[in-house]
Description:
By secondary structure, the chain is mostly helical. The protein has helices at residues 18-33, 45-48, 55-72, 88-98, 103-107, 110-114, 124-138, 152-169, 211-219, 237-250, 254-260, 266-280, 282-292, 295-324; strands at 5-10, 38-43, 79-83, 144-146, 177-179.
Amino acid sequence: MQKPILVSGIQPTGRLHLGNYLGALKNFVSLQNTNKYECFFFIADLHSMTEEFTPKEKAKQIIELAADFLAVGLNPKKATLFAQSAIPAHNELAWILNTMTPMGELRRMTQFKDKGGDQETANVGLFTYPVLMAADIILYDAKFVPVGDDQLQHLELARTLARKFNSKFGKTFTEPQPLLTQTPRVMSLDEPSKKMSKSRPPGCIFMDDSPEEIHKKVMRATTDSESVIRYDIQTKPGISNLLRIYSSLSGELIPDLEKKFAGMNYSELKIGLSNLISNYFAEFRKNKKEILKNKKGIISALSAGNKKASKISAEKIKKVKTKIGLI
Ligand code: AMP
Ligand code: TRP
């Protein structure tokens, strides 16, 4: 029996952070390792072109993200790892879906609004971004898509478009479902009302930060004046975020952490957390350094995945075109 298909992508826009890890990447690895799914993980390089870049920078970001994938434990023998831009069918399907997507639906997308997409000078790619994302997913008939909660609205569009195509042209696509982790939204350490993002560097822990950098950022994390270590997202968003991160990395439940840290002060929690993060990613840092020494190895891992994804998606797009009447 064919295993359920699982697809997800990450944009190569710079170093990955704790939000990317706890919201998505950690799940990629554990889902891959269950051996229950046919997994496709890709570098969303076309999506990343909606932000400013230089060619040199982009090439480096793609290699770095591929190294991140490998260093964290994604395994080309267990999952298909590929680059979106190497697979023409993503764009072909995106165009077809573009012709079925009302502008109003795209204008409502919060990511589009947040990125200032409605301005005259914004690139059109930002507007049609969710349509390409829908194509990425339904092209492989993904049943599951592991993502952070900021992508849920985009995923809903993918479902809508799959349904719309099926009802217009006959059953062709699977409707995908999101898979969230226990931490679908990691908050910024310095501003716990905002999500962790590399655009807010002081509150953002990168997966390959040195122990010193991790320590500095965690010790400066915003807390409150109560001096009691307990979980309360409303009145103590900073401490609650730290507890959540602690819990996700250590596997301890939050009530157990409240007991463990009872009577201690905030800096004791922060020191504990900073050591935990440093140790947790020690192997990743080492692996990444090693993997980056062999760029040829990275490129050949990607080419193998590109080949496999090309073959599968070319067959699918052929079927799609036949359904539409494109001969
Ligand atoms: P991106 O870097 O935008 O391609 O995001 C890669 C993945 O990380 C997506 O699944 C996002 O939803 C997820 N992600 C990004 N930031 C966060 C965050 N602060 N908390 C949880 N997940 C996140
Ligand atoms: N938009 C996603 C993000 O910013 C990246 C992405 C592109 C993606 N295509 C996808 C994620 C398909 C899941 C499935 O995180």
